[in-house]
Amino acid sequence: MEDLNPNFTSPISGHAAAQIPLATKEAVIEMRRELFSEEVLDNCLHSTRPGAVQLRGHSPRFTKFIYEFWHHPLVLGAISKAAGVDLVPAYDYEIASTNVQLGSKGIVGLYETPAEPPAYSEEQAALDAANTSGKRDPIIGWHRDAHPFVCVLMLSDARHMQGGETAYRREGGEIAYIKAPQMGYGAILQGRYITHMGIPASGMGERIVCVTSFRPRDPLLEDSSVLDQIRKHSHHTEIYYQYTLYRLEVLQARMRAMAEELRGKYAENTAEGGAGMCFKETVNKQGLEKWAREQMDYLRVTYEQVNKSDPRPVRLEDCWGVEGKGDEFNQV
Predict the structure, then answer these.
(1) CATH class for the domain made up of 17-233+319-329
(2) Domain boundaries, the chain
(3) Is pLDDT larger for residue 325 or for residue 221?
(4) What is the pLDDT of residues 33-56, one digit of tens each?
(5) 165 closest CA partner among 135, 212, 200, 141
(6) I need a labelling partner for 117 at 20 to 30 A (CA). Which of 73, 173, 223, 255 fits?
């Protein structure tokens, strides 16, 4: 983390950010085909900010290829290597949350999104940049992510893109930038610990990026995942179930690991006399207290996250060019 935040050390990895090739053009086309299907747009569309929407909670029900892509061993291996820690998707709801910068047709135009990313000439890019200069707000403002790592995959032709970087704040308040990925490339960021924001893009006709959130595969590593930032753009009943279930499974794994550690220590302590007559301390009381408090804190955070007052959902009427769709898109 020292390259981005000199005075801060991550509890899980020293790798702050990286870019790697992840998806072929054919894979990008198939992802776009699934994402902009009518069933995804009708069921999984959420407003984020004026001029931008997000597609969430569609995998695996509506987007089976996308689900398989983010679980493929080669993809997970490449992301984990870049991140410096073995990672897995946080849970299904956090697979390929797709941010879309709306065009002049607004929501209606999403239904016309082609599967193949439109090629944009240098001349078109320059004209678009001139016409939109200073007119677009960030897709998502300054924030820290809800999960330890994210991978941002570009699904648009970004050869002539202007802007589109990820801005981040250093510890001293200085703002620096991470270059935007090209189509098929993934930008990996330890976003739970870095305050950052996506800069609006121009010169590409469209900007479609999908974001998959990750947590450590090892349940014994710190997991600071929360629902802040994402709660108001989610179907609450579904995300509360998935979030609670994965957290309980992490606790279950931690308890099994502690039980195995105690069994091993006990076996060492009774190697000569046999089980049933152990005269050496097997349970470190201070260590057990520390461990127990950590697990109780983890469970407390879980409970608090699903019991926070739900914020007012952002209405799609706040977006550009919403015509003729009304409340049916206000999925919360």
Answers:
(1) mainly beta
(2) 17-233+319-329, 243-307
(3) 221
(4) 999 999 999 999 998 877 889 999
(5) 200
(6) 73
